[in-house]
Amino acid sequence: MNPSDPPAHRDPADLLADAPGEPAWREHSSGGRLAERLADKVAEQLSEAIEARGIATLILSGGRTPEKFFVALSEREIAWDKVIVTLVDERFVDMSSPRSNAAMVIQRLLQRNAADAAFEPLYEPVASAELAADNASRRLAGLPQPFDVVILGMGTDGHTASFFPKGDRLDEALDSKGEPRIISMNAPDAGEPRLTWTLPALASARSLHLHIEGVEKKNVLFDALSDEESPYPIRAVFNRAKSTITIWYAPAEG
Question: How confident is the model at residue 14, as a pLDDT?
Answer without folding.
Answer: 64
